[in-house]
């Protein structure tokens, strides 16, 4: 009996020692990787000596001493450091640029391609779309050196499509994005490449989500996990797909056993555990009050209530990138609200809003524009005559937009600072909200003034333009800026924080009639009484109305007849809204498809209708008639 007891004690002691030694080795390896990235050679000897001999230690020594090393070994190092949450990927990317040189082989080098493709992937997700697009272009030029007859080149070109798919997803361009995803998936199946199939199933699911096809989204994600099970190693998409599938099942309801299995698999992996905190919070928000889900999660993390759990997750998730940390704040706010921690929920919601403004700034729009410009250059051999004028104009607009964003951000920071300095902590939430409403009105007032400055600068810029086409583009841009300025003017003047569209349309008609219809008599009918919309609905809706009415003034009205223009907004039985604009002009040609229009104005209308989760119908009957069904902000949030 004593012998058995000694053996058991020895076994536990040995297991503890082995685990401790493994943790130490991981700690030394991590520290050495960090020092290598920081080019601190003098400090590496101690940690290098502590690491036991292994293939990976040999790789670290080669990289440290800059001796000859294969691309495959280099890939192993960069994959390891890229998954360290406490290491900035921007630092990793700079090291790649310095260390990895383009091979001069006559055939494509798959390991070099993997390093650079992963660099594009991580830069896009964690650093900057601009930098990712720059590396994407370099990688495309490398792959174009080789012939398509090589199956490795075909697979590489397929992988290169993922960057465009992400940009289509950001723009919510479902039509083009889904088309490319399906075409690429078909090609991947023909090549019988399971990893490529997983990649394009993942991107296809993004567009199914935008289409709100929940069950198809789940089926595609489950298909991807089945393919993962057939591979010797999991792809980088495995954990992201698993996370998306958990989200879908929680939203759908039921499937608790599958959800628990998937979330535990993520939690038990040290690299993805940090990603599960927002999922646990979401699970609490959507669980039935009668279920024991909340208590099981609270017990798992040894806390007494949801507020204490949120505080713990906030500390555990401090090393997350801003986008993932936003999900913890947002889901935590919802879980706190469900469990009646209203003050704390409001506080976390405000923090989430401030963080998301930093993530989705003007830089994103600028990055998308830069990438599109690069793609267009590949297709064009000659530039149009007035390109220089347009470039100058777009430069002025971009610069002024950035200035506008910075001013708005400073005002928001000022609002936050003033809120923190309030000495009376026991004031009612209602009083706090009223004070913030006044500050928001101040923001709208300043934004309106800044739009007017932009409009005035565009007016001055357009005076020096002689090209008629460029001048027309400048005037259209000026009108669009004015239409947005009117929105913010109405928000500033209205106590409710909503835009009265009956007043807005009348003011817009007044502005446009002074520009386009000074000699034409136009009978205008407006029916939009009581139509009030928030800023997220008002701006795209105002731009749509501006574009359609502008077209009517430009093309529909003549001096030799009675000109009629009718505008109405009504709420349908489905709780959607219907915008109808019609004139008695010559209308559009019968074979004209408004959804495939190439003009900037009509393309803008199509994009804005999608933004409002709406649909567009154009007919010709005694003139042009546009009918647009759309959802307000509350309805769009329910869909999302």
UniProtKB/TrEMBL annotation:
<dbReference type="InterPro" id="IPR011495">
    <property type="entry name" value="Sig_transdc_His_kin_sub2_dim/P"/>
</dbReference>
<keyword id="KW-1133">Transmembrane helix</keyword>
<dbReference type="GO" id="GO:0004673">
    <property type="term" value="F:protein histidine kinase activity"/>
</dbReference>
<keyword id="KW-0597">Phosphoprotein</keyword>
<keyword id="KW-0472">Membrane</keyword>
<dbReference type="Pfam" id="PF02518">
    <property type="entry name" value="HATPase_c"/>
</dbReference>
<dbReference type="InterPro" id="IPR005467">
    <property type="entry name" value="His_kinase_dom"/>
</dbReference>
<dbReference type="Pfam" id="PF07568">
    <property type="entry name" value="HisKA_2"/>
</dbReference>
<keyword id="KW-0812">Transmembrane</keyword>
<keyword id="KW-0067">ATP-binding</keyword>
<feature type="signal peptide">
    <location>
        <begin position="1"/>
        <end position="20"/>
    </location>
</feature>
<dbReference type="GO" id="GO:0005524">
    <property type="term" value="F:ATP binding"/>
</dbReference>
<feature type="transmembrane region" description="Helical">
    <location>
        <begin position="393"/>
        <end position="413"/>
    </location>
</feature>
<keyword id="KW-0808">Transferase</keyword>
<dbReference type="InterPro" id="IPR036890">
    <property type="entry name" value="HATPase_C_sf"/>
</dbReference>
<feature type="domain" description="Histidine kinase">
    <location>
        <begin position="442"/>
        <end position="634"/>
    </location>
</feature>
<keyword id="KW-0732">Signal</keyword>
<dbReference type="InterPro" id="IPR003594">
    <property type="entry name" value="HATPase_dom"/>
</dbReference>
<protein>
    <recommendedName>
        <fullName>histidine kinase</fullName>
        <ecNumber>2.7.13.3</ecNumber>
    </recommendedName>
</protein>
<keyword id="KW-0547">Nucleotide-binding</keyword>
<keyword id="KW-0418">Kinase</keyword>
């Amino acid at each position: 009996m004593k012998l058995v007891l000694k053996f058991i004690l020895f076994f536990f002691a040995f297991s503890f020692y082995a685990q401790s030694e493994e943790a130490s080795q991981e700690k030394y390896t991590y520290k050495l990787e960090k020092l290598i990235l920081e080019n601190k050679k003098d400090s590496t000897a101690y940690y290098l000596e502590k690491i036991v001999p292994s293939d990976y230690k040999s790789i670290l020594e080669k990289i440290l001493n800059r001796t000859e090393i294969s691309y495959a070994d280099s890939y192993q190092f960069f994959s390891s450091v890229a998954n360290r949450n406490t290491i900035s990927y921007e630092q990793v990317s700079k090291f790649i640029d310095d260390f990895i040189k383009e091979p001069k082989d006559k055939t494509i080098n798959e390991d070099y391609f993997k390093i650079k493709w992963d660099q594009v992937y991580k830069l896009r997700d964690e650093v900057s779309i601009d930098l990712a697009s720059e590396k994407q272009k370099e990688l495309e030029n490398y792959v174009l050196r080789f012939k398509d007859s090589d199956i490795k080149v075909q697979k590489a070109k397929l992988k290169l499509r993922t960057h465009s798919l992400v940009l289509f997803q950001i723009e919510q361009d479902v039509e083009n994005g889904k088309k490319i995803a399906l075409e690429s998936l078909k090609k991947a199946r023909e090549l019988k490449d399971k990893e490529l199939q997983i990649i394009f199933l993942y991107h296809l699911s993004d567009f199914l989500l935008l289409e709100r096809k929940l069950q198809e989204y789940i089926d595609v994600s489950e298909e991807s996990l089945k393919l993962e099970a057939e591979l010797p190693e999991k792809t980088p998409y495995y954990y992201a797909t698993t996370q998306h599938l958990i989200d879908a099942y929680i939203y759908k309801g039921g499937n608790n056993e599958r959800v628990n299995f998937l979330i535990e698999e993520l939690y038990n992996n040290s690299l993805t555990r940090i990603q599960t905190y927002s999922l646990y919070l979401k699970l609490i928000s959507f669980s039935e009050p009668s279920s024991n889900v909340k208590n099981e999660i609270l017990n798992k993390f040894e806390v007494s209530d949801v507020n204490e759990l949120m505080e713990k997750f906030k500390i555990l998730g401090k090393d997350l990138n801003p986008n993932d940390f936003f999900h913890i704040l947002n889901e935590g706010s919802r879980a706190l609200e469900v469990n009646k921690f209203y003050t704390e929920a409001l506080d976390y919601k405000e923090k989430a809003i401030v963080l998301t403004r930093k993530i989705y700034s003007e830089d994103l729009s600028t990055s998308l524009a830069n990438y599109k410009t690069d793609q267009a250059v590949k297709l064009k051999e000659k530039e149009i005559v007035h390109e220089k004028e347009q470039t100058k104009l777009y430069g002025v607009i971009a610069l002024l937009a950035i200035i506008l964003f910075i001013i708005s951000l400073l005002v928001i920071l000022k609002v936050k600072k003033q809120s923190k300095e309030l000495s009376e902590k026991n004031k009612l939430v209602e009083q706090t909200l009223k004070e913030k409403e006044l500050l928001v009105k101040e923001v709208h007032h300043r934004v309106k003034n800044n739009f007017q400055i932009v409009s005035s600068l565009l007016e001055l810029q357009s005076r020096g333009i002689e090209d008629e086409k460029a001048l027309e583009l400048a005037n259209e841009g000026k009108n669009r800026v004015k239409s947005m300025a009117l929105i913010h003017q109405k928000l500033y003047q209205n106590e409710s924080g909503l835009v009265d569209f009956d007043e807005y349309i009348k003011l817009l008609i007044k502005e446009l009639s002074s520009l386009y219809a000074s000699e034409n008599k136009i009978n205008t009918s407006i029916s939009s009484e009581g139509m009030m919309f928030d800023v997220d609905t008002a701006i795209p809706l105002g731009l749509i109305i501006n574009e359609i009415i502008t077209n009517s003034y430009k093309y529909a009205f003549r001096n030799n007849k009675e000109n009629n223009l009718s505008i109405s907004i009504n709420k349908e039985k489905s709780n959607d809204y219907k915008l109808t604009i019609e004139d008695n002009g010559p209308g559009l040609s019968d074979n004209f498809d408004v959804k495939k229009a190439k003009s900037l104005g009509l393309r803008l209308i199509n994009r804005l209708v999608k933004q409002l989760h709406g649909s567009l119908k154009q007919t010709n009957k005694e003139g042009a008639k546009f009918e647009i069904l759309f959802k307000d902000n509350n309805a769009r949030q329910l869909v999302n």
